[in-house]
Amino acid sequence: TTIQSSSMDLAPPTEKVTLRLMRPDETVSLARLIYRVYGYTYPHEDIYYPEKFASLIESGLVTSCVAVNELDEIVGHLGVFLETPEDHVGESALAAVDPRYRGRGLFPKMKKMMMDEVASKGILGLYSRAVTVHVASQKSNVKMGAKETGFVLAHSPPTAIFKKMKTETANIRRTVALFYVPVVPDREQTVFLPRSHGKIINKLYKHAELQRIFKKANPENVKLTPHSHIHSHILPEMASAFLRVNEFGVDFIDELRLQVQDLSQRKIELIVLDLPLNDPGTAILCPEIEKLNFFFCGIMPEYLDGDSIRLQYLNSVAFDPEGVDVYSEFAQEIFDYVVGEWSKHYQTNDY
After folding, report:
1. Which pLDDT value is given to residue 163?
2. Which of 2, 216, 244, 322 has the most CB atoms in a 10 Å sphere around its CB?
3. Which residues touch 279 (CB under 8 Å, ≥6 apart)?
4. Can you give the pLDDT at residue 348?
């Protein structure tokens, strides 16, 4: 929920606002802005802990653009987050404009500046997770030329701070829409699509205007190493785990089954799994993975060393499709497909 401001509170139009990169010593000023715009409801809780956020900037995992007024106070912000220093795509997040400075087109200006900045650092594209409790952030993504690539159902728990507000919906995990926008010209690549999702992935690529060559996976050509390499990023405060497959091994399904059991025991509610589409192993193993109750939820261009297909797993989580607000007709089609996949695995379970 944004904290609204009446037009009487707008800053004088003559006041100059400057855009520049953010410094690590400005995180307290940023936390004030985020509070002014979102209260305590923003899902990246690091933002409310300035020293944590400063260390992310210093490590290079966060690059931030700020809009500052004549008093050098932060009145606008947009950040790009990397999960690992080797990533080819960053997440565009923490977009905020002080209510007193709305209507000046600051968000598109910051987005343009960030796209140029990250392109110069070798980043290929930006993805973002837009909330679905309303359509405002989905709409601004579409306006900026970003394309929907999927939905992660029951993605974010309400923030710990938000939970204290004791509202009806306080304990419901929120669904997000995934968006992608290239920051440099797209490069053509070969991908192997799992047969059952070929049609929808083809549609997603077309919609995102990405050039891909589709090849059929031949099980005889799939070379499995003795051991699998699965990179995991666990966020206990969000009861979530993000897994990326770097290499399929002979033990992959057993290894994944063990990870799921371990994470479930640790009360992790959501597991997101990214599989490389340039590896024929993904197309061959996808049906086996789905037998473990993972289901298709989208694609992530350039997220691994090339594109990934994204699957998700829910551990005793209630999900209601009715509570999701979808902006575009195309997004509705994708959302319905993902919900259909979810219902094959979870609808029969009585939570």
Report:
1. 47
2. 244
3. 192, 248
4. 59
Chain centre distance of CA 66 = 21
Torsion of CA 118, 121, 124, 129, to 10 degrees: -40
At 221 the pLDDT is 81
Nearest residue to 160 via CA among 40, 56, 268: 40
Residue in the structure block whose two tokens are 């004791």 = 166
Comparing CA positions, the residue from 275, 220, 144, 59 lying closest to residue 136 is 144
Q: What are phi and psi of 15, to 5 degrees?
A: -70, 130
- Low-confidence stretches of the chain (pLDDT < 70) are 1-8, 40-45, 159-171, 348-351
Residue 106 CB burial class (10 angstroms; 0-12, 13-18, ≥19):
buried
Distance (Å, whole) CA 227 – CA 340: 33
pLDDT given at position 2: 47
pLDDT value, residue 350: 45
Give a three-class secondary structure readout of the chain. Answer: CCCCCCHHHCCCCCCCCEEEECCHHHHHHHHHHHHHHHCCCCCCHHHHCHHHHHHHHHCCCEEEEEEECCCCCEEEEEEEECCCCCCCEEEEEEEEECHHHCCCCHHHHHHHHHHHHHHCCCCCEEEEEEECCCCHHHHHHHHCCCEEEEEEEEEECCCHHHHCCCCCCCCCCEEEEEEEEECCCCCCEEEECCHHHHHHHHHHHHHHCCCEEEECCCHHHCCCECCCEEEEEEEHHHCEEEEEEEECECCHHHHHHHHHHHHHHCCCCEEEEEEECCCHHHHHHHHHHHCCCCEEEEEEEEEECEEEEEEEEECCCCCCHHHCCCCCHHHHHHHHHHHHHHHHHHCCCCC
Separation CA 32–CA 66 (nearest Å): 13
Q: What is the pLDDT of residue 135?
A: 85
Give residues with Cβ within 8 angstroms of 98, minimum separation 6: 33, 36, 37, 75, 76
Closest CA to 146 of 88, 67, 93: 93
